[in-house]
Amino acid sequence: MRRWAPLLAAPAALVAGATVGLCVVLLHDYWWGFLLGVATTAALLVALPPTWWGRLAFALGWVTMVWRATTERAEGDYLVSADVSGYGLLAVGLLVLVAGIAGLRRPRATVD
User: How far apart are CA 88 and CA 105, in angstroms?
Assistant: First the structure.
């Protein structure tokens, strides 16, 4: 079962990241929603294990959802506006991606 744990945890972390990212996108226009979303994202990044199937999968799900929300919709409008909170959300997205990559463990050297 231990060998299959990463394969089961990666999709769960990806979906959790996408869910939190969607919530942050929908609430980022309110100051309390922006702060709550950033605090939730930071808490989950700290709580998840520093592995590709934990922290990195969460970060990729979060950033993918925010990226998808910044593209133009069929009606011609955007979910993320070009104001302070919108640019703040994009900056947080960059920090989430950096934290997901930088938080990975280095492989241990094997001793022969």
Answer: 28
Report the alpha-carbon distance of residue 70 to residue 54 in Å, rounded: 25
**Residue 41 burial (CB < 10 Å; 0-12/13-18/19+)?**
buried
Residue 33 DSSP SS3 = helix
pLDDT tens by residue, 36-62: 999 999 998 888 878 777 788 889 998
Q: How many CA atoms lie within 13 A of 81 on its CB side?
A: 8
DSSP assignment of 5-16: HHHHHHHHHHHH
Look up residue 104 and give its DSSP letter.
S
Distance CA 80, CA 90 (A): 9
Contacts of residue 6, Cβ cutoff 8 Å, sequence gap at least 6: 51, 52, 53
pTM over 0.90: no
